Amino acid sequence: MKLTTTTQVSVDGVMQGPGAPVAGVAERGAFERDGWAHFDTEAGTVMDEIYQRADAFLFGRRTYEMFAASWGAWPDPGDSPIWTALHTKPKYVASTTLTEPRWANTTVLSGDVAAAVAELKARPGGELQVHGSGALFPWLLDNELADEMTLFTFPVVVGQGTRLFPDTGRDRALELVDSRATPSGVTIQVYRPAGRPQYAT
């Protein structure tokens, strides 16, 4: 399977709290600006199409808990590709603290996560998808386990919160695979890692 990541991000790089707060799941730090990502019809259609390609999901613990408390608790709306994918495809959680996942069809990866993810990727199938997962995402990039990443960039400056990339870290070049803009100004870019960037001398 190809490991793909999908992230909702603001123009200033914030990935925290794109949706409404989830009851019972604490935010990281003193963050009060949830709900800044507003999908128009076209962006929603693209997100539906992404979920329809999933053969399995990989989450960090915090994102898993948010999804389990929201998508995992909602009744079947009957017409949601996202709900259907999340409830019918295997879910894996990279965590050393989660012992009793409350969502059916969930497996906790608590040992050698890199080896476990590599084993999942070696299985036949389409996509092993990572959504959100702010701590897991950079770790996957640093361990060269992510094959492709999709960014939904929303036309807003949030001004606080966890950012997709920290102030310091590894440098990397990216190959732009696809790019589009929706009527409300959401830009959707698909990138593949392309080694190290070249710098001017």
Tell me what the structure shows.
23% of the residues lie in helices and 25% in strands. It has 201 residues and is α/β, with parallel strands linked by helices. It has a single domain, classed as Dihydrofolate Reductase, subunit A (3-Layer(aba) Sandwich). The termini are far apart. The model has no long low-confidence stretch (mean pLDDT 93).
Task: Supply the CATH architecture.
Answer: 3-Layer(aba) Sandwich
Rounded mean pLDDT score: 93
Order of helices and strands: EHEHHEEHEHEEE
CATH class: Alpha Beta
* Sequence stretches where pLDDT stays below 50 over 5 or more residues: none
Structural class: alpha/beta
Q: What's the number of domains?
A: 1
Number of helices: 5
Helix fraction?
Answer: 10-25%
Q: What tags apply to this protein structure?
A:
single chain, 201 residues, alpha/beta, Dihydrofolate Reductase, subunit A, 8-stranded mixed sheet, 5 helices, 25% strand
In short:
This protein has 201 residues and is of the alpha/beta class.
Topology:
Elements: E1 2-10, H1 41-52, E2 54-60, H2 61-69, H3 81-88, E3 91-94, E4 106-109, H4 113-122, E5 127-131, H5 136-142, E6 148-154, E7 174-181, E8 187-193
Parallel strand pairs: 1-5, 1-6, 2-3, 2-5, 3-4
Antiparallel strand pairs: 6-8, 7-8
Helix pairs in contact: 1-3
